[in-house]
Amino acid sequence: MYQVAIVEDDMLSRIGLKALIPWEEHGYELIGEYENGRQALEAFRVNSPDIAIIDIKMPVMDGVELLRALKEEGIRAKCIVLSAYDDYEYVREALRIGAVDYFLKMQMEPDSLLELLDTAAGQIEEEQELAANSRDIEQEKRENLLVLRENFLKDLFWGIQKKEEKIKEYLGKYQMEMFGSDYFCICVRIENILFHNHSYLDHIYSVKYSITNVLEEIMSNYGKGYACYTGPYVFTILCSLYASDRPDPEDPDSERSWKTLTRRFADDIREYLKNILNLDVTLGIGTPHNDYREFHQSYKEAAEALNHTILGLGDITYYDQIEADGRNRSYLSVEQQLQRLEQALERADITEMEAEFEAVEERIQEQENLRQDELKNICHVMLYIVNEFIQNHFLNAEEYLEELEQWHDKIGSVNTFPNYREWSGDLLDRVCRLNGIKQDIRMDIISAQQYIREHFKEDITLKSVADHLGFSASYLSRLFSQETGNNFIDYLIRVRMEHAKELLDTTNCRVYEIASMTGYGNPYYFSRIFKKYTGYSPGDYKNRKGTVMGEL
Predict the structure, then answer these.
(1) Where are the extended beta strands (E) located within 27-156?
(2) What are the residues whose beta carbons fall under 8 Å from the beta carbon of 332, sequence distance 6 or more?
(3) Is 389 helix (H, G, I), strand (E, B) or coil?
(4) What's the start-to-end Cα distance of the chain, in Å?
(5) What's the CA gap between 503 and 457, in Å, rounded?
(6) Model's pTM, two decimal places?
(7) Any idea what DSSP says for residue 287?
């Protein structure tokens, strides 16, 4: 029910307007009548109607002045102006300010008034829909910015994103400022998150953004830094120092001072995480590089340094401390197969997944003197890849992520190649079963789409469709976004508009009939949606077929 107010100084005109139509039968409620613009403005400040019918000429404050005041104060009532034959200049100014339309007092007819009211109501519906979509989009942007940054950082660390122009583009897009031309990575491993009381997901995801925020806040004292969870238990920071603190290749003391500074930074990390979150950490630090494309290299160095920590809990290790003959063996030899495994998971190709699991095994067997910590690190990376697959493709990811805890717990016992083969074989079996579950999710979206195609003529909503299919509305909403890339409303509009196009092409039905046949009770609102979807009004779309045929 739309609320309507009448602003008219002539009492007989007010009485005539009120008696012109059965307001409530058409979805409108009269909530007030005012003799001049000032009275109306004072009332609208307290309770604004949805629609105001305003006389163009009134004492004290006329209709044009009222329209200006409403606009200045942000009162969003849709305004229809009443005019006489000699009010053209006033009417033009009113329309310029934002009035919906006007009609002549001497030609007041029920149908004309209803048409104007429906036009105003259609604009309100459209604006509400746009506002709701805009709010959803803005909220989603805020919620997703951290996730988008995290995914981008992982792409950098894993070497998936190596093009400098693209890296610069995404740094700007995700509001990530970097100083100067020397960049390095620090890997921070949490040592005392215990899993015997809580699930894997609860522990990691309940604290990961808190840890990320703390790491970035500490780095802000030294330059710019962006952190993300690269797991398991490991956070990685991409760092750039203030210009005054960067190493100078011409200064022999520069590298020493850089290490002093980064050691101070690392000590701050250990102290803050211990004091604020009661977490003990171990750190690995990569060497500085002067090219965006080398983020990947510094990450590998930091991860390798972390893998070589000598003292264990609380240790800080620099990459250049590691003996040269042992560098990067686990990453350089197995990395390509791990990336292919990730791609096979994305494609849900069972045969390819099995082949890539076997390829990783072969690369491990080729290694001479592979250390136990390197073998365990490969397990961590594989588990991380499966973790990402589950989070990206399963709406009830928590249920499946909890299962990964058992594979994580077993990594401590993977000390030999036979241990690894048994561990990875069990993991592969579980991934193959998960792929079958993913196919069930695809059937859910097919069922939802089929129901919409069969019932789009009815007044269906996200909740009504979800209730019919036995889903929650939030599950169905996420299902559409995840599986189709569009939201529920977009899909419903597409189905309705395609059917409307077919009716316009094949029948002689009137626009209001087609609106009703496609689930719209308001033909004016239908026309707006149709034009937004096709670029044509329904009438123009119908006529265009005849024009094309005539040209042929």
Answers:
(1) 28-34, 51-55, 78-83, 101-104
(2) none
(3) helix
(4) 49
(5) 13
(6) 0.41
(7) P
